[in-house]
Amino acid sequence: MLKQLLAITTILISTNVYAIPKNFIEEQTSVYNLDEIHSYVHTPTQMSIKWVENKDKLATFCLGVRTPTTDNTGVNHIIEHTVFTGSKKFPSGTLFFDANANFPHTYMNAQTAADYTLYPFQTPYEESFYGLLEVYLDSVFNPNMLNSPHSFYEESFYFDPNTDKYGGVVYNEMKGANSQLGRILYRNIRKTVYEGTHYQNDSGGDVAEIPKLTYQQFVDTYKSYYYPQNMMIALYGDLDINDTLKIIDTYLLDAEGDASATAIAVNTSPTLKYTDTELTYSTEEQDAYVIKSFVMPDKMDAIKMIELDLWLNTYVINPNSQFRRNLKTRGIEQIEIFKDQELVNPIYSIIVSKVNPEEITHVRTIIDEELAALFDGPEDILLEQDVIRQLKLELANEEMNISRGLDITHTMVSNWVHDVDQMSYYTTHKYIEHLSDVDEIAGSEIFRQAQCVNINLMPSNDAAPANPLEIAAIDQDQWTNIVTSMREWQKTYDQKVLEPTELKKMIIGYDIKKREHEHQDIDYSLYYADTNLLTTELYLNTSHIPQEELPHLFLYSFLLQEAGREMTPFKGILNSKIVAFEDEEEYRPYQKIEIVTDNETNQTELLQEVQQYLKGKDEHWHSMQIEKIISKFYSEFQNDIITTLMQLTNGTGSGAKRYLYEAHYPFYKFALECKKGMQPNYIEKTFEVANKLAPTEDSSVAIIGDKSEVKHTYRSWKAFIKENMLHDVQEQDYNFKVISKDSVYYKKGQVDYLLYNYDTKKDFVDGQDYLLAAFATKNYLQPEIRIKKGAYGSGMQIKFPNTISIYTYRDPHYKSSVDIINDMPQMLDVENIEEKLLLAKSEAISDFQAQFGLLGADTKKASIAHTMSLMDVETDFLKHTQKEIAKLDADDLRAEMENLTEIINDSKKGVCIKK
After folding, report:
1. Are 540 and 694 in contact (CB under 8 A)?
2. Integer Cα distance of 553 and 542 in angstroms
3. Cα distance between residue 166 and residue 211, in whole Å
4. What mean pLDDT, rounded, does the chain reach?
5. Can you give the pLDDT at residue 2?
6. Is 908 exposed, middle or buried (0-12, 13-18, 19+ CB in 10 A)?
7. Would the pTM of this model clear 0.70, i.e. be above it?
8. In whole angstroms, what is the distance from residue 515 CA to residue 29 CA?
């Protein structure tokens, strides 16, 4: 195995290369390919700042604060929300949403982890970068929440005596979050391994504890953590470092405080009080979860982590490993590996899902026996090479990804928090680039040293949660005054504090180079992108598949993707899904096959190899894929509820929407029938449908990559399609039963979700639709539902080509939201409409750009451009719509608002509520 790590070049700086402000010194620079990493120290506060200098226009800012979680009140999470509810320079209670609308960006958020809070944003526009920089710094260092408790109650917890409802954005967010299975598993592992430390606490907040938090505790916690010596900033991209540091310096000097203060130490060792324990979780299910957590030894540097990950990916996680094959033979088909890596002692957990409680001992015995045999097993060179090839492909994709700046700055801040190598992103990438084989001895030895903790997570029907008023820190008779005062504050601070971005500077289109060809009635689109990868999108027209065979089409698409994931040797990534697109006259369904490889791989051969590999799978393998479909569907229902409601309401639509509904809930029912034996010969019938899947007229190919490689691959696909072309296929008529009723999804939980889905009846939505959605969201839905009700989210969205949606997310009570939405045509405030219009235009253009990936990577732009071509939409539509939004006036908006009643009344509704 390669042991010689090529070092990153490090240069110690004695004189400043850049004219940085006098309060900063540059300690060193490090060079990695085209990145030059500068390390600065702000001398008055000793705060650390890093800048990754390169030519990337996606400038990124990331500020981190060490915030260990000392209880379950969610105080750090609530601070993260509340700092953006107005600051000294920007006194608007809706500051986050104002900035989100006003400054175009590719990412803008904040997040709370167990021991740190992160404040990142990313934008390609210089004006937006400095605008957001001021908003973030002023919010973090000078929040108005310290002078007034109103935003604290708005974001944490309150009781409204007028409606007899509980509010609080974080309170309702955590009601939903803590019912998600993934979070339940994560929290139970952390609590067991780290009992007695700050890691046992819930950084998001426990709904049974959030009401206990007092305003004074909230303020005291902020003051305990939010000072420069306890913070770090990471910057990335092509920016003016002198101007950036000047702005940062201003805020640091104002907040200097105690110059002798130091950063809080967050690292702590696991207590490991238990080697075997049984816990319960509240669920509708009757299944248990068997968890084996392995707590790694400390002093795990980046290279040891890579060696361990490679070994685990090869010999434990990989479905083709002997370990996984043995488990399948003994009846354990599906396991998950959960990695908790942002700790000095990382935790790897093997999780067996949906176990009959009576079989826990049997399952544990099998896992233990196979783990024992694992260390004595033979070396698998072919599988090792497979894992390395896959990792290198993922690495190349990561380097080209739009989120690269966010990933690097996040890693730097997280590593600073945990006192480990802040350059680990580069250390690991350089190591992987030159990796030739897996050191199975090093990886297995690290795993052998781990301490094992066994957890049985059992289903439980817990009693109803405690009445929040009984545990709240506020006496019940005080809530009337608190809520009245909070409502007045919400009105007062909903004011303009940002100068709108100049709209003409925002308008952009696709800048990717494209060539089009047609051969044998097949459209070829060649996109020349800045990437080291090669991507082909093959859209096979499936309109000739009879209606009764559609479930088998959907199944084959899923099976092809799963076969691609496990086929060895690994040569590339193959994804497959069913899509349908509308144009001005009709809709057309496709099987979309996406293949991502390096430039050396023949993609047509890869597709044929995966198809052939799938044909060789036995009946048992297919039955396990049916189980995966059912499990995947259940998981998506649980964790992505708004998308679920969107899919369900498609059943009331027509055209492409109705077709896609068939690939959702009806397909799930088909999978259940296959499992129960009600679909005999489903495997044979699926492959009969597969034999009909080949290029036909109206199929389409897009190839994305380096110019020379794209041209070479184009010739390969042209030859492949010529050989496999189907002619004289008969397009089918589909007569789906239209569902007339609204959709209701019952889920155990304490919050609701609501969706209105409206078909505009237009060929394509236009600028007025986007403007109305942005205006209604900012000036009605967010104030009335998110802020006043305390729902986690609400808004109005446009979905191309012709859908308008209104939604509420983690809503304390959907029925009151229905009333609020029904009142919107009469209650939407048009006072000062001219002033509000500019901000709405900026947000509408930003939303439009995000939907069409205009600020994204070349590969994403090319993929969306290809989709548009399948819908017969010219790329001129992009700039035209943005210009249309910019030119609209108040009268245009008022005219569009007259359609609100129809939008609301004619929408198909979906709701997720508790039983």
Report:
1. yes
2. 9
3. 10
4. 91
5. 31
6. buried
7. yes
8. 42
